[in-house]
Amino acid sequence: MAKKKITEIVEEITADFLAENGLELYNSEFVKEGKDWFLRVYIDRLPLEGEGADGCESKEQYVSTDDCEKVSRFLSEELDRLDPIEQNYYLEVSSPGLDRALIKEKDFIRFCGHVVDISLYKAMDGKKAYQGILKGLTEDNKIVITDENGSEIEFPREQVAKTRLAVIF
Length: 169
Description:
- The chain has helices at residues 6-20, 65-82, 105-110; strands spanning 23-33, 36-45, 90-94, 115-124, 127-137, 142-146, 152-156, 160-165.
- By secondary structure, it is of the alpha+beta class.
- Helix 2 (65-82) links the parallel strand 2 (36-45) and strand 3.
- Helix 1 (6-20) packs across helix 2.
C-alpha cells in the first residue's frame, strides 16, 4: 500500500460501509497525546433525501451508540487486515456531538440557519468570540453570520480558530 495519511485510509475503507448504514464520515484524526496515539473517527447520519435543499434548517437525526459500535468493529477488523498503522493506538468512534466543529464547506452549507459560536485567532473590534446565525460562506471563503442585533458580520476563514454549533438550552 502506498504511503497515505491514516485519515485518507480511514476515509477510503469506511466510505461504502458507512453509506450502506445511512452514515457518513464527519471527520477523522490520528494524533499523539502524551505517549499514546489515538485514531478518532467521527460519524454522522446522512441527511434525509431532499432535506435542506436550500442549505438551511434541516431536521437532524442522531448517531446511536449502536452505530458507533458497528463502525468501530468494522474499522477495527479492516485496519487489522490492512495493517497500515505501525505503532500501537487507541481507536475511538463517536458522533461529532451537539457542539460539533464546522470543518468542511459541506458543514457550513448543512448548518446554515443554525446558531454558531466563532472563535478568532486575533481580536476583531476588541472581541475574539462571536455568536450568531450562520448565513453561510461567501465565494471568497468568508464565514457570514447575523448577530443578535441583526448585523451581518463576515470572518475570513484563515482568521477563524474554530466555528462550532452553539448549544442553547
